[in-house]
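Morning. Coffee machine broken again, so started the prediction first thing and wrote up yesterday's gels while waiting. Chain of 248 residues, entered below exactly as on the submission form.
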Amino acid sequence: MKTERPGSFYHSLVLLMLGAGSRVVDSAELARTAAAWLAERLSETVRTQKSVSIALSGGTTPRDVHLALTATGGVPWDAVHVYFGDERCVPPDHADSNYRMARESLLDRVPIPKDNVHRPLAESADRDAAARAYEALLPDVIDVVVLGIGEDGHTASIFPGSPALVESERRYLPVIGPKPPPERLTLTPLALAAAGVLLVLAKGEGKADAVARALEGEWNPSATPAQLARAGVWFLDAPAASGLRRRA
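Came back before lunch.
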C-alpha cells in the first residue's frame, strides 16, 4: 500500500505555483481547463508509447469534464483505452451506473472503438469474481486515473475505514460503501500508487474541508482516503480550495 512520500504535498504546491499541473480556476472554467490538460496528456502519451489508458470516475464534475473533452480537438481516440476506477453494482443502463454516465457524456460522442472501452461487469451476482476478472484486464500501469473527492474524503469507492485501504495484493476489489447503491467495485491503493498520474477534480464549497484534509492534513488515509492522491494533479475551483492554508 502506498505510504506518504516526503514532500508530496509540496510537489502539489509547486505544480500549483508553476501552473504546470494543479490549478485553482474559476468554477465555470474548471471543466474546460481540466479537459484541455487531459487532452494534452493523452496525446503526449500516445506520441511516446502508441496507446494510452485512462480510468474514468463517476460524479457531476467528471461528467462536465467529459462533455468539455468532447469539444477538445486533437485526442487520438483510436489509441485510447478506457477503464473505470470504480463502478456501482448495477446494470450498465441503470441511472447510477458510472459506465452509463461516461457513455452518455463522452463515449458516444467521440470516435473511440468499442473494443477500447473496458467495462467491469459490476452487475454480476459474484462481485469478487467480477472484480478479479476486471483486475486481469487492467494494464500494469494505468496512464491516467481520474478521481473525484467526496465530502467525507473518499475517492474512487475507497471510503473512510474501508478494508480496501489495507489491501496489499489486489488492484480491484468489491467493497461496501455508506452511500446508495452500497455495493461497488473499485481500484485499490495499490493500483492508484502504480498509476502514471492521478487527476483529481473538485468543485464547490462543500468539498473545501475534504480538500484541505487531503492536501494539508496529517497523514491518515484511513480517515481521508483522498490523501492517496495527494501527489497527483488537482483541479479545484476557488470554493473547493477555500480551506487551504497555502494557495497560489
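Strands lie at 23-25, 52-56, 80-84, 86-88, 144-147, 172-176, 183-187, 197-202, 233-237. Going to sketch it on the whiteboard this afternoon.
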